[in-house]
Amino acid sequence: MSEPLLSVRGLTKHFRLEGSGLFEKGPTLKAVDDIDFDVAQGETLGLVGESGCGKSTTARLVLRLIEPTAGSVVFDGTDVLKCSKDELQKLRREMQIVFQDPMSSLNPRMSVGVSIAEPLRFHGLGNQIERFARARDFLEIVGLSTDYFDRLPHEFSGGQNQRVAIARALILRPKLVILDEPVSALDVSIRAQILKLLEELQRDFRLTYVFISHDLSVVKRFCERTAVLYLGKIVEIAESEKLYREPLHPYTQALIDAIPVPDPSNRNIVQRAGLEGDVPSPINPPSGCRFHTRCPKRMERCSTEAPPLQSVAPGHQVACFLYR
Amino acid sequence: MAEPILRVEGLKTQFKLRAGTLKAVDGISFTLEPGKVLCIVGESGSGKSVTAQSILRLVEPPGRVVEGRVLYRDKDLLTLSEREIERIRGDRICMVFQDPMTSLNPVFTIGEQIAEGLRAHQGLNRAAARARAIELLKLVGIPNPEARCDDYPHQFSGGMRQRALIAAAIACEPDILIADEPTTALDVTIQAQILKLLADLQRRLNSAMILITHDLGVVANLADQVLVMYAGRMAEYGDVQTVFRDPKHPYTVGLMNSIIRLEEPRDAELRSIPGAPLVPINPPPGCGFRFRCPKAIERCSQEAPEPRVDRQGHAFACHVAELNGAQA
To answer: What is the CATH number of the domain that holds B198?
Structure first.
């Protein structure tokens, strides 16, 4: 692999919660706990996991929208976490994010055209005529008519608004786009429209994506490689096809088995035993391997010792004592 | 075929909005047999939730049921007095909503909220209702129910809240359980647990169930019958095996094709339905799906297709499928 575009090492974010007394220290929420991953230029890496696994916190840390507790994020040769405010501002032109719900990420009183042009204004690029012309170009690029420039978000469907949000993220011509559940709020019949658009844009603009989702089927279809997160830790990372065909970590296996199969002659959920128990809280997570409380294959050492993420095959890493 | 426990006939529910009349439910009919599961599938704006709310008369102004009948044990629920419907609601027909946080009252304990229905409908005293609430919490898989009974909703996780809500809904062993997207707000592994629980309880209590969902995987796992809705109307209705094996309506076909299947290779084509779901505010004449339909013919814009039922009870409302059926 050539030099990765994004390289994350030991990334950690602990939130100190409020204590019950005035001088009492509150508990610590370990949202992201010492994770490493690389994303190559032009690649799509999927981050998949359930609520509280730290996938969205990771996205915000990479963009330095929140400050990490520890670790490093190197983007295109620059350490994002060490650079100055000015440098960060410049860097942010190259790293953009698209959120799950376009209705809440777009200003309801701003026409979609002005919204799309807004990042150009923010970064002081071009005059208004140039900026609006550019916004019109990007409306077309995401498959919307330029006639829609003056419309407001509420006049659009969810899918159309997500196109607007994508146009706004791309207008600065970033190298990296973080997609945080970009199709989760959309109807099933239009998800593929947006995924296809994202694939086309990736080719045309040579984009690198980090794709965050709770839906393993979508991640597997869209991402070359996938990292599975559980309570702030990466438990497995591999090529998506391989992860699906030979999942090693018991949690990855459970995630795959928990997807309801759309075939009435294979009632996989109601006929098979699934994973028991709740996802534990990231406040005081379980000791040792964080998955041991729910793991059907737990051994004695799992409750005391945390398994490190280790290579089991080229490009395939897993954090589980079963594979040592 | 058993005598149906619920028969919905020509149900129409409309909302008078400033922009016009939203025909949320526009002539829906179906029957529910005792002990069976009917899944209502559709996208946003299809009218699936309003259908459920109309059955229990939970539609609030500016919405109103304008036509149709909902027959339950020879009574039309739509003509009952407020008192009579209240006696059925929460007792014989119960509902589980998508978001357990908004349907649980934050200032009462979980146990109190389950006991409430038991005291109101079954006349149990405080102690007996509490004992039964604990039993129910145990039944839905809440660990340590004696202690958790006194917890407040915020002390429960999302999955546990949904379990508690299910416990409240089945407290009076209803004839019909209506679940509106009961697992949509939950994590995948928790969704699997709740689906299993619903299937298990439904079988054990032999209740009939109406499950509303947008997820065809959920449908395939639980349904006996499927009703596919689009823009307030029925697109297709039939036995789950038949609808999945041989979908007739182009919308059902499109939905099936849009599923991103885990087992598909990564380079498989991503398929979708062009356009966006129609919001039926002052809907134009003809079939609501024709704007997105790959098979639309001229007739589709002139008259709305009426549902046709074949001998197996498989119904679909589509001019083109009807023509094809006639040729075959």
So the answer is: 3.40.50.300
